[in-house]
Amino acid sequence: MDDIFTQCREGNAVAVRLWLDNTENDLNQGDDHGFSPLHWACREGRSAVVEMLIMRGARINVMNRGDDTPLHLAASHGHRDIVQKLLQYKADINAVNEHGNVPLHYACFWGQDQVAEDLVANGALVSICNKYGEMPVDKAKAPLRELLRERAEKMGQNLNRIPYKDTFWKGTTRTRPRNGTLNKHSGIDFKQLNFLAKLNENHSGEVILALLAPPSLIQTATLSC
């Protein structure tokens, strides 16, 4: 039988339910990259599995080795229903990963317009800067950029840049690694995203980027290498 990460990734709700019924299993454990079962279900758009994991006590704001939360992944892949579900259960809408990127950065970068609009409607900050001084709206195409700014302003947001603040030790919500180590893998860096054709140059960067980027873009980048 495949492990719980594979079952969540593939959306095998029956197998996941059976695994969860064994109370000795830790549903907040992480795989080799710190991805919890909830991370995988959110990345792949497995709504039924996401609901099941949340109902059984999965941590909504759990972080992988790069400090990405399930909301980062759902937003990146445009899974609007899962984004709404996570927000319903109090996901941190402005959670930052190790590069200072919030879910809205990725929704804007990958062109997930509806998700970006939903995030702003629920309080995502359009002018919060990452480590490189980039705001989410800096990553959006012009029409979306203007729309998000307009909506944020109507909601009372100050559109001035919000400087990046290092919050690396902000909490203790990382997944529990199976091997008991605390080794840290790289998170998602926009410098990597801007050079998709160079995926094979850095093994860690390649793996993590492939986990976050929409499959169609990864396939294109791989073919161009």
From TrEMBL:
Keywords: ANK repeat, Repeat
Protein name: Integrin-linked protein kinase
Transmembrane segments: none
Organism: Myodes glareolus
Keyword Repeat: yes
ANK repeat residue numbers: 33-65, 66-98, 99-131
Domain of life from the UniProt record: Eukaryota
Pfam family, one: Ank_3
